[in-house]
Amino acid sequence: MVSVFMISRRRLATLVLAPAVLFLIETACNRVPLLAPSGSSITLATATSVLPINGTATIIAQVIESAGTPPQAGTHVTFTTSLGTIEPAEASTDSSGQVRVTFTASSSGTATITAISGGATVGASGALKILVGTAAVQKVIVNATPTTIPAIGGSSTVSAVAIDVNGNQMAGIPVTFTTNGGTLSLGIAPTDATGTARTVLTTAVTAKVTVSIGAATTATSGTTSTTTSVTGDVTVTVSAAPTLVITPVSTTPAIGAPASFTFKVGAATGVAVKNLTVDWGDGSQVQDLGGSAGDVVVSHVFGGGGPFTVKATLTDAVGNTVTASTVVTPVALNVNVTALVGALSAGNYPVTFTATVTPNTVSVTNYAWSFGDAGPTTRDTTGNSTVFTYAAGSGARTVTVTVTPSGGKSSTTFIVP
Prior knowledge:
Strands 2, 4, 6, 8, 9 and 10 form a 6-stranded mixed β-sheet that branches. The protein has a 5-stranded mixed β-sheet with strand order 12-21-18-14-16, with no helix packed on it. Strands 1-3-7-5 form a 4-stranded antiparallel β-sheet, with no helix packed on it. It has one helix at residues 4-31; strands spanning 41-46, 50-51, 56-64, 76-81, 85-87, 90-92, 98-104, 109-117, 120-121, 128-132, 137-145, 148-149, 154-164, 174-179, 183-184, 188-190, 196-203, 207-213, 217-220, 223-226, 230-238, 243-247, 258-266, 273-279, 287-288, 294-301, 308-316, 321-328, 334-341, 348-358, 364-370, 378-381, 385-391, 397-405, 410-416. By secondary structure, the chain is mostly beta strands. The termini are far apart. The longest helix has 28 residues, at 4-31. It folds into 5 domains: 1-30; 41-133, Sandwich (Immunoglobulin-like); 134-238, Immunoglobulin-like, CATH 2.60.40.10; 243-328, Immunoglobulin-like; 334-416, Immunoglobulin-like (Sandwich), CATH 2.60.40. The chain is rod-shaped and about 150 Å long.
């Protein structure tokens, strides 16, 4: 026989334990993640397939059930990557069946990203690949400025531009520079915001600078994959020096008369002459003869006897500079005048005057005569002789001739008794 009291206790226990059991069951269910049902698929997408080191990319996972509809919101998706990290590594879908996570990598390589939820996975063909750092570099463009330096040596700035698989310039990429001649200011340099890394080559010999990007290694599923390096090079040549020779006039130049000098300019192969200047050494202004090559003939008039050091300086387009010099001691320009008195005719005295100029290499363009009569009478001649007739009378006459060579003047006096 069961007492009323006993029945009351059992009912009481049932009333107390039932809610607790239901709570435990509900809690346990909530702890089991909601996974995509069998036959579902996962598709991964990102806005970029290339990242610099420490760059980030948003990864979107789209879960679709076999019926073509999104799964229940809160479906759990787990992400894995062969390189870098994904935050968060596990996330739940929204009402459209999408999950968004962030990928980051602090080293170069190729990241293979996959996702799984229950029986749904991206599969080998659906894995997302992101190239990071040097792994994304497809080519490198190498230049040197200048490409030719002077014979005595010099410096050239070598630049390397990293280009990714999409044709964009990549910042933050380490670039390695090596050379077979001279020295480099930097052996390793990162690319700047324009994707360019730079170093300075200093050399006195022709040198080739080789640029290398990549050769990093990463571990994937227990195997090691090597990122093939991208290389390029540029050669900086050392120019031969130009030549310069001064050939002075064959005879000693005269003071006040033009003297011709030949400057024989020999340019190095493929290098233009920039300019040729001459300092005549007599205090006159330095003369710029421009960028001519070959034989450059120039005349100069010296106003004194010297000696003068004529110095020429030749500079070419790559910065080579050579000099040449010669010493010149001009001599005085002398004029000797002779007179030949003709026969007296009706009280008039015809006189033939002849001017002889030394050195005889001087070319005279004009003879200016002053005959010393009461006039006074003057006359210009291109020849060195002239006849003047004096009226009868006593006293001496002072005859002056001024000789004008090209570019100068000289005079002498002859007294006619």
